[in-house]
Design goal:
Layout (H helix, E strand, L loop, with lengths): L2 H16 L10 E7 L2 E3 L1 H14 L6 E8 L2 E10 L15 E12 L2 E9 L1 H8 L7
Protein name: Ester cyclase
InterPro entries: Cyclase_SnoaL-like, NTF2-like_dom_sf
Pfam family, one: SnoaL
């Protein structure tokens, strides 16, 4: 698959997430998919993403940096959002936060087979912790 085709596929995947079309994820993601070394069925992966969207209803995946090479994609995704419920164990404050995710994907046959994701939890913690010096 050409890099431009894979870039279009990846952008389609993020559009699917932003539009909350979780049932359509099988168009973009293998079943099963490996996420941070955990093998998940497509249903488990959909549930993971649904949980994030429930905890942060205005969650929007915005590409900040994107590199496509062969069957691999690397992306820095920026989130500017307002958690409405506890997110990754941190209580919401009602105020907006900003954080990034660095994520790498390996594609197979035009669909995501493996995902390695690192979310800047320290930035989230700093913004959601009352009395933090940056508050």
């Amino acid at each position: 698959m050409a890099d431009l085709d894979l870039e279009d596929r990846y952008r389609g995947y993020l559009m699917c997430l932003n539009e909350r079309r979780f049932p359509d994820l099988s168009e973009f993601v293998h079943n099963p998919v490996v996420h941070n070394d955990r093998t998940l069925s497509i249903t488990e992966f959909q549930d993971l993403l649904r949980r994030d969207a429930a905890e942060i209803p205005d969650l929007h995946y915005a590409i900040e940096r994107l590199v496509v090479q062969g069957e691999q994609v690397a992306c820095r995704i920026r989130f500017d959002c307002t958690p409405a419920a506890s997110f990754r164990g941190i209580a919401p404050t009602g105020r907006p936060i900003s954080f990034v995710e660095h994520v790498f994907y390996r594609y197979r046959d035009g669909r995501i087979a493996e995902i390695w994701s690192l979310i800047d939890m320290e930035a989230i913690r700093e913004q959601l912790t009352p009395g933090h010096p940056d508050r």
